[in-house]
Amino acid sequence: FTTATFVAFARWLPFRKLGFSFGEDERDKHIFVAFLGAAWAASASGRMHVGGFPNVNLFWLFFAAIALAIFVGQIDRELVAAKKSLHSYALNGLLALQCLRFLEDPSQSVPGKQSFAHAEYLRRVVHEYESGGKEVFLLTEGHVTKAPHAHSAAIVDIYRSGVTIAPLNEDFRKQRFGAVIIGDVAELDYRYVLGEAFDRELTMLRPAAENYAVTKYLEPGPFHVVGHKINPTWLLTPRATPLSGMTLDALDETLRNEAAAALAATSARKLEQVKRGQTTKDTYLD
Q1: 73: how many CB neighbours lie within 10 A of its CB?
Q2: For residue 217, what are the β-bridge partners?
Q3: What is the pTM of this model?
Q4: Is the pLDDT of residue 1 over 50?
Q5: Which residues contact 177 (CB under 8 A, 6 or more apart)?
Q6: How far is CA 163 from the centre of its chain?
Q7: Most confident of 4-8, 98-102, 112-116
Q8: DSSP assignment of 240-284, as one string?
Q9: Which residues are CB-neighbours of 154 under 8 A, at least 6 positions away?
């Protein structure tokens, strides 16, 4: 698709009719605009999942920045030729401010001490539940649990096709996982991605909520540099007595009430330990 777009732009785009003039070499202009169009096609046809904006648009932004520079340069030349120096200064000043706004800070891409501390805290929690011989299903991130599981974006893609994931639903019903870790209850039906009109019965909300209860609040760490801004927050463990006969809204509300209770319990425990000098507010509680 991207290659076809490149060829189409290179052969058929009527540059002169559009009024563009970047110099004498029209062939170079054809090639550049073809790259610009092909890069846009690559980005537009990519999976625009939540958190995917920076990496999906990377193909297009490189050429778009060059195109903007050429376009603004042409305007600047015309302003100078028309002896409108003040307008030229204003235009370049606005561009300089925009560049400062998006100035890259290398330190933002480097995990700090808090990031490492939270990663170690999450590993301790996961390994505690894995020590019983069962798997831990972690939805928010990978490379933590012993057994790998599906990426959230892949799960959403399957749901979008109108298909439920029967093996995963069965795993919840059999309580195969020793623990399930999510960032938000909405991750169990992905309503923030699929929309309210989507058939939530296709998702994992019912089998998960009926067979697992929110029993622990995991203290949040720094957000990742890229990707969806979410932390592993709620830990679910198997219910002694599975729920049944409840609507999806009732199951959703049950999980949220359990989450609120878990948050209150963790907050009270940490406050008590801080008062006793057993820990600090920046220390993660297992």
Answers
A1: 11
A2: 234
A3: 0.66
A4: no
A5: 134, 135, 136, 137, 171, 212, 238
A6: 23
A7: 112-116
A8: SS---S--HHHHHHHHHHHHHHHHHHHHHHHHHHHHHTSS-TTSP
A9: none
